[in-house]
Amino acid sequence: MIPSRLVKHIGCIICFFAFAKAYPQQTAQLLSKEDAVQQMLENNFGVLLATNQVAIAENNTSILNSNYLPTVFGLAGANFDRTSSTNDFGGALDQQGNPRPDIIIDDAETTRYDASINASYTLFDGLGRFYNYKQLKERYNLSQLEARETIENVMLQLFSVYYEVARIEENISVLESALEISKQRETRAQYQFDYGQVNRLQILNAQVDIVTDSINLLNASQQLRNAQRDLNVVLASDIQDLKTADTTVTFVSPLLMDSYLENATLNNVSLLQIEQDILINDYEIKKAKGLFLPTIGLTGSYGWNLANNPASAFFPSTTRTSTSLVAGASLRWNLFDGGRSIVGLKNAKIALDSQEILKAQLEQSVKRDIANARGNYINALAIYHLQEDNVATSIANFERSQERLKLGQITSIEFRQAQLNLLNTQTSKNAAKYTAKLAELTLLQLTGQLLNVDF
Q: Mean of the pLDDT values across residues 79-93?
């Protein structure tokens, strides 16, 4: 027995649903895939941080950070000395034969001022700075690859949420159609009841289905709003600025995908990063070898000095001004530094060997991941095509059931089952479509082509 209270509130539930559905539709605007990618590149926090790291690495490759430029610095100083002294001649006699008196000087002030400009330049340091500069350039290239990896990961995250919005939107369209069909069935049942063709149970069954469809639609609408907010988090935009997604999906042609797979190991970002690490470690070995070579440098300075000397017991006060120009060269060769250079070179060679081992391990993992991703993609694409055929069959079955219901050849329960079958196949097809597309994007990332294709 269906409660009468449920029947009374059916209209209220439908009105509430209509309001909840209309509100987001009025404010939401279509966000194209291209605009979504552009906003992600401009606003996403992870992408912005990765971009800053690239900028730092680029600054490090400047000639100002290379040690190839001379060092120039200035020095200046001032000294003040106030001295009181007594000179005792120890009983010595002057020319008249009298004891010489003590000479007392109180508060004799001495001032000295000096300033200089100094420069030093390393002519040769065992090629250490040369390979260090090479390393900095390769670290910049590595930072670009790391930024690319961050962008690829964020882009996968973006489209995972974007296509979730699109999937729910398509499901809402299916649920709206189901609700409209249930309303039409209720109207037809009401007419048939008025003419005595059916009992009231047919109307109540239709009204129960309206409530069920309305609840499903309300839940889907809430899921859509949640997914839209998740999308705004990835885009780093206003949480309440809800957007709708483009439900059009295109797949990469098989021939083009095969060409991507052929060059996957050459373009995979993880493999490119390990190659950069190997190159950086190779330069580290060369830097370590440079420690066994001498260092040759040049120095130079230009100085000015001023000294004001007070009068002493034997000399009057003087002022002395001088300038100086000094140049020099130096050679330093560590014939033995306690073995630190030898240990450093050995460790650098071991580190390079470790990078080679990691490369071999990573190559194996990447090949496995590509094979798995390719299999997942082919499987997901096949399921999507099967679901498309299944939807066509379900539509034919539903339309046939609709005709039979009008002729009274099936019950409303049997018709509802056909309607649910159609609803399930349509939502399954929607899920299969976006699952296949995400599987394709994962495969494109592994082949290094995610940023080179249209979505």
A: 73
Task: Report the predicted TM-score, pTM, of the whole model to 2 decimal places.
Answer: 0.85
How many CB atoms are located within 10 Å of the residue 342 CB? Answer: 14
- Using alpha carbons, select from 63, 66, 55 the residue that is nearest to residue 144: 55
Amino acid at 36: A
Q: 243-245 and 29-31 as β-strands: parallel, antiparallel, unpaired?
A: parallel
Q: How far is CA 238 from the centre of its chain?
A: 20
Q: Is 90 exposed, middle or buried (0-12, 13-18, 19+ CB in 10 A)?
A: exposed
For the chain, the domains span: 4-67+128-292+339-452, 69-124+295-332
Each residue of 258-311: pLDDT tens digit? 999 999 999 999 999 999 999 999 999 999 999 999 999 999 999 999 888 776
- Interval 205-255: pLDDT, tens: 899 999 999 999 999 999 999 999 999 999 999 999 999 999 999 999 999
Residues 11/212, Cβ–Cβ less than 8 Å: no
**Structurally, what CATH architecture does the domain formed by 4-67+128-292+339-452 represent?**
Up-down Bundle (1.20)
Chain-centroid distance of CA 351 in Å reads: 27
Render 339-395 in DSSP notation, one character per residue: THHHHHHHHHHHHHHHHHHHHHHHHHHHHHHHHHHHHHHHHHHHHHHHHHHHHHHHH
